[in-house]
Write a structure and sequence with these properties.
mainly alpha; Cytochrome Bc1 Complex, Chain D, domain 2; 43% helix; elongated
């Protein structure tokens, strides 16, 4: 091998050694700018799965893969909730314009992914559900009667739980859920927990819009002004002045 060839080999080896030197990033290991991510699986896993569950189910919050829910909540509703959150609840705002970390294209990717992955055109099977949002204020007095008809068999006569379901008037729960959240659950149910939708609480007797509105008003009336209160008052110190 002549000197020129030897020099080329030596230089090539030196370049390779530099590329693999300790502390140097491996090829393809560059961190992607999070603002450029548009992949639904990545965005959902990072921002949504913690509450709504992997694959949109079995989380602490309502299942997003429920076709009945997607049958009553349009794209505008889902985009509004993802972007701005729900004040007074555990649902945060994700849009940058509302203090979150996602840009508009990423919010659109989440909305589009939820719809295309989990919505089904035939989910309602021709039934006309109560509207997603209440059209008028509810009557809590009538709501008590509606509760007795449609809900008490599972949640107990006073709403504090029965053999088939837990308390629906727990102060901590009501403090974390909005009236709209209650309405959505009454209409859609929680199928992953065995709770039926508005059509199936009483066989052959679907809840009307008025029924849903009034029972939500009754539930909302059970909220305490300061959840978790009252705390015990200050106790006198032994041997101290009164």
């Amino acid at each position: 091998m002549n000197r020129a060839a030897m020099l080329v080999v030596a230089l090539s080896g030196g370049v390779a050694a530099c590329r693999n030197a300790p502390g140097q990033p491996a090829a393809g290991s560059e961190v992607k700018d999070p603002r450029t991510i548009r992949d639904f699986d990545t965005l959902y896993a990072t921002n949504c799965a913690g509450c709504h569950g992997a694959g949109g189910k079995r989380g602490a919050a309502i299942a997003l893969n429920d076709p009945v829910y997607l049958g009553i909540a349009g794209d505008a509703t889902i985009r509004q909730v993802v972007s701005n959150g729900v004040p007074g609840t555990a649902m945060p705002a994700f849009a940058g314009s509302a203090g979150g970390l996602l840009n508009d294209e990423q919010v659109d990717a989440i909305v589009h992914g939820i719809r295309t992955r989990w919505a089904r055109p035939d989910a309602l099977q021709g039934a006309i559900p109560p509207p997603h949002a209440a059209q008028q204020p509810g009557d809590p007095d009538r709501g008590r009667s509606v509760y007795g008809t449609y809900c008490a068999s599972c949640h107990g006569g006073d709403g504090r739980g029965g053999a088939r379901a837990s308390s629906i008037v727990d102060g901590s729960y009501l403090a974390l859920v909005s009236d709209q959240g209650l309405r959505t659950i009454v209409i859609v149910g929680r199928p992953e927990l065995g709770a039926p939708d508005w059509r199936n609480n009483v066989p052959g007797r679907a809840m009307s819009d008025e029924d849903v509105t009034d029972v939500v008003a009754w539930l909302a009336a059970q909220r305490t002004e300061a959840p978790g209160q009252p705390y015990p008052g200050p106790q006198p110190i032994a041997g101290g002045s009164q």
